Predict the structure.
Amino acid sequence: MPTTSNFGWTTPADTDLVKDGAAAIRTLGNGIDTSFVDLKGGTTGQVLAKASNSDLDFTWASDATGIPATIFDAKGDIIAATAADTASRLAVGSNGQVLTADSTASTGLKWASPAMGSYTYTRIGSTSGTATSLTYTITSGYKQLYYAFNVTDPGSMYLRLNSLSGANYQNSYYHRLFSVNTTTSTSIALDGAVTINSGGYWNGIVQISDVTGNKPFVEWNCVTNGNGAVTTIGGIANYNSNITLSTLQFVWTNSKAYELVEWGAN
């Protein structure tokens, strides 16, 4: 008897008699019925999956390729794993919280308030003297540097990074009450264009960020007493090119006494 090419089901031959053909058709039907028996049954929501590498060997199973929408209960819920091949719902957190890894949580995740950045501050050293300028070699290995500075009767006072004098400094400074001036120049104007003479002083803090291989950012604030008036001066500036900071050059007009203290933060 001839058979089908793929599954080998027996079929009637062209020369079969009518009664032989009927028997062959029954044989073919029984073969098909037996081969597709795995397609019977199953329940709502199940999918047909291969049971083995054999032809037409199937089984009904839960849908393992997708996650049912019923796992979600509220707006903002997300899916996380509690184990291999096991999905679970992680409820949405509160406003302002961030998703954080936590090995003690069932999903390995939790919602938590963002951690505030913290720094370790170290007093590095100090220097003093009498001159019209100070080129100070900074201490490497810190993310931020702080300098407490004092100079008496400095006249005009400015700062340069690595002694660079190109027009790459962008200054925004203020003095007295919100008098703001923004300039691009060859230095950082620590004095805010206010000449400090007549027995005055410049007491201030200089903070520098992005010390290594970036565009250093400088903030400063000070109080001066010159020409019979107390003045608050401060501002922000940056060097508009990537540099690795190695020295600070403080320059002032008059040859006067100065003091500097260096702090670092990581």
Observations:
- The mean pLDDT is 83.
- The CA atoms of residues 9 and 29 lie 9 Å apart.
- The longest helix spans residues 18-35.
- Residues 69-112 form one domain.
